[in-house]
Every structure is written in C-alpha cells, then in structure tokens.
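Friendly challenge for the regulars: who can give me the structure tokens for this chain first? No prize, just bragging rights.
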Amino acid sequence: MVRRIVVVGMGYVGIPIAALFADVPGFEVVGVQRRSKRSGWKIDWLNKGKNPIGGDEPGLSELIGRVVKKKTFKVVEDISACKNAEAVLIDVQTPTDADRVPDYSSLKEVSAQVGKHMRPKTLVVVESTVAPGTTDNVVKPLLEKSSGMKTGKDFSLAFCYERVMVGRLIKNIVELPRIIGGIDDESTKRALELYKHVVKAGLCPTDTLTAEVTKVVENTYRDVNIAFANEVALVCESLGVDAFKVRELVNTLPNDPKNPASNPVRNMHFPGGGVGGHCLPKDPWLLKHGLDSYGKSKFYPKVIVASRELNDAMPGHVVDLLEEALATHGKKLKGAKIAILGVAFLENSDDTRNTPSATLYEKLKKRGAQPVLHDPLVRDFELPFTRDLDEAVRNADAVILSTKHKEYVTLDLKKLKNKLATPVLIDCRNAYNEETAAKAKLTYRGVGKGKRRK
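First reply, four minutes later:
Bragging rights claimed.
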C-alpha cells in the first residue's frame, strides 16, 4: 500500500524533508508550492529533478534527481492535493514584522486550505517555527473550522520542528534527534511512527507546547551566546586585543567527563558583523510573543531582548569602523563607494533571509555612502547587487567582507588594493589578518580586532 505525504512549502525545510520521504520505499510525496513571482520557478525545476537550493548542499541534488526519476516526488501548485494524503507537513515561512510580531499570514492561509481539503484521519504536522501556543491557539482552530472536524477525534495534529542548517540540510534531518509534540497522545504516536522512516537519530516525544518552547529556546540560546561574543568583541576592540585569540584561549578550558558540573566546558561563539538567517533574528521575538500572549504572569525577558538588540546593532558598528578607517586617509563616508562582499547571510550558500548585509547597505545609504553589493551565489534579492566582483570593487573607497564565501577568503589582497580608490578593508568575519593586509598596503579594521596602543 502506497503511503502519500503532502509537504506544503518548497523551501530550505520542505524540499529536503519531502525528498527524504520520497526516497523511502512505499512512500509517494507531493510538494505544494505557490507559483509566486519569486518562488514559482521552483515548481518546474524540482519536477525536472533539479535542485533550486544553491551553494554547498551535500547529497541534495542527487536525492532530488533520484526521487523524481523514481516518480515518487512531484511538485504542484494546487493545495487540493491534500485530499488524498495520509499526512500533511506545513513548512511555510513565519517571519516577524517591523513591530517584532509574528506574521502568520501564510500559516493561517495554508492551515485553512489544508483543513478544507484534508480527509478524516489525516495527520497534520506543523514544522514551521512558531511562537509557543500557536499550534493550539491558531492552527488547530483554523483546521477545525475549515474541515468541520475535531482534533483528536477526526484528525491528528502535531508540532515537529526542524533543526536544519544551510550546508547540511539532509545531515541534520537524518542525524539529529527530532522533538515531536502531539496535541494528544495519539497524535504524538502517529508522528513518531512517520518520522522514524527518515530520522536515524532519537525521536523525543513530548506535548505540543513544550516542543514549541524548546524550538525557540534552542535558537534563542545561540542568539544570546553570539551577543555575548559580540559584546566581548567590542570590549577587546576598546582594550586593543584580538577577540578571536581571547576566544581561542577561553575555549581551552577542558571538560571533566567524570564530573562535568565541576568544570563545565567553555564554548564561546564567534563575533561578527551581524546575525542573519530565518531563525535567530526572529525566534527570540517569537518566544517573547508566546510569553506575552499566553503566559500566566507578566515577565520581561531582559537578557533575551538585550542580546537580540545588540546583535541587530552590529552592522551599525561596522559602519563606525569603516568611517574611522576612511578618516585616516582623509576620506569622508558621504559619497564614498563601498563594496560589500556577500549578500547571503551564511558562507557558501545562497540564503539571503534576514541577511545583515541588507542592514549594512541601508545604513550606508542613509549616511550618504554609495554601497554596492556583490555575491557569486545569490540568484535573486530585493536590493540591487552584482555577480561581477571587478565591477563591485573597482574604484571603491573600501571593501567590507560581510560573508565568508570561499571566493573572498582566497582573494589576492595586493591585486585587490590596486583596484581600490582608497585602500580600506573591513573584515566582519575574521577572514584575514592585519599583517597580511598591511603587506598589501591596506588599512585593515576587523570586528573584535583591537589595535594595541603604542
């Protein structure tokens, strides 16, 4: 008997999970993707067996080609495909708006449409990251209203969040433990049975609300740790020491496996010019939104909010470093051409979601500069950019390394210097060192790279 799965949303989560299920004997998978101006092209690409996700993504292209050839995976734009599905996975984006409130327009629309078309006994799984309380208070009522059925009695509902990372999408889905929270015991049981077919690591059953909190806390933990590293970087810049050397030395503290609590291992994160991606810039706000909406007592998460704000401020700090470096050459920021290397938020990927390069671009424009964005991997972006590196850097008054793509790390700094109108290099990702830049006669500034006073 063929088991049919529908995955709604063909993005960084939906594509790999759909392809993995389609590779399991006995499964057929239909992906649903809206034919929008920005993403509609993915439908034709995927149906031809082509991978629409750029950058280094081990195994994904081969997997997509294989399941399309097997005819166990196809993509459509009609969500009525849900009517014949045993399970429906919801993988739509859930961003936050300018007021840091979750934008659930896609989630609400899809939930209502799934409910309209799904048959009794369907298992619906929300994989999109949401604020705590969303599955029970937003998705469940929409499914019940549009379907005329009751959760637990007529259909099952679970929240099972992804732990994907660009550059290792398949690896993370298959090899990392999966947290599964059903709306009731039967929903949890059914979701556990489904995911065991693609997840080799442990499956961790819990309730829906606990799973939702775990997801946003997981990413908030990382965001807070990055904020700590960024604050240390600012301290080190002021004191005139290298934050990356400090990090290296801090992380030498060993862990005692016999008694970890007696000497916990240190794992200081990397500082940088800003935090991007779909998760970290918004998940702390999702956590706070869930707390504000459904918490029993009024509590303000000061550390979480301050950390998020500090990370948001790092592109502004990069502009300050730039302005100081330009001043050493008697050059003002206003009117200066600034080449920003990297549009994607993550090295060697094409993922531009919440990229700090966009914030950096806008801040430079606001202060009168003439920024030019460059990226060798990105196909489409809301801001103008070029894929011609020479065009970006020629006659520029400074270069800002925003993303640590391979192409940038291997740049010949002497040749780069000869193309610039003003020899200034700002390093947001510890890609270079001051000695190498000095040999190329470049004025170098880096996040966390303090200059010792003589």
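The radius of gyration is 24 Å. The domain at 314-446 is CATH 3.40.50.720 (Rossmann fold). Your move, everyone else.
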